[in-house]
């Protein structure tokens, strides 16, 4: 009910975009003006859930500090959780930037419905935007499937642990998150333990929702910007000199330069879409890259150690495997979206070069030259201006994780 009243064009978005907005409302980070008290209450609830989940993992690290293999298992599960908590607080405090980005996205849909000059010259504008959004649909749907399977696995593992709690080896896994620890008495079937287990499961659901909202919104915004750049490129390719209407191309050149500035150029008192996106996600991307390397390393090591056990637990293998796949997928989708944005930015300069600029006036060519020079600077979403999110750098993340994994495996085998 809240979404249509704030954004009349929300039905123009695909299901994944609409779902992401609903998730952001549920998490209390919807950047609207209405029902702020409810949003604050939801934000406090999910923040407390994430902190509770993190404290259990950190407490487990302290208790298990003398067992190297269990510490590695705990780090494999806690590193993605700590990453999500850091990303959550960073993202939740940037409501103004999120609101600005959403305003850009809705404004583009409004201009599309008004049939403005650029969209009128590119009849397939709506289809182009929807095609870019399909990648967001794929990301959100696959992550929801992983989260659902992981939740069922956690519930099954917790149920088995509670029913066999007299077994000494199962006591470490009495909570869904392996080797979690809380200051409670484990002797006897306690309702407090059942409550803590239920709280941890609900906290994990908050974790899945938080990472879907943060990462999904980044992917949606980057791909939306990429679709606008592609529409602008097709518009530039269609600018021609018409002898019957010699002034038409000047109007199109002015419109192209104006749109190019809105998308890319950072002015003194006006931030472009690309600059706002970089400001919103620069620190989040840094946290994501650093934690993904560590999470992949620890999770893969834990998965290999479980495989080597004579009585390997199927639930543990599934847990570590799903978390590793989730970490790898989010790292890939970050780099894929950033790479598509960079490629579309470079294509603008090539489109300007290929248009009929030799038939235009000197003033029009000057404007085109400035836009082409600006397009030569790569449009990057980078981690704190250090690590650009590209497919080439995705291989760097995987190589770094593999290198740390080999070192960690050698250390764990020596300890064993």
From TrEMBL:
Record's keyword annotation contains Endoplasmic reticulum: no
Domain of life, source organism: Eukaryota
Residues spanning the membrane: 38-63, 136-156, 191-223
Family: Belongs to the insect chemoreceptor superfamily. Heteromeric odorant receptor channel (TC 1.A.69) family.
Subcellular location, record wording: Cell membrane
Keyword list, A-Z: Cell membrane, Membrane, Olfaction, Receptor, Sensory transduction, Transducer, Transmembrane, Transmembrane helix
Gene: LOC124296562
Protein name in the entry: Odorant receptor
Membrane topology listed for this record: Multi-pass membrane protein
Source organism per UniProt: Neodiprion lecontei (Redheaded pine sawfly)
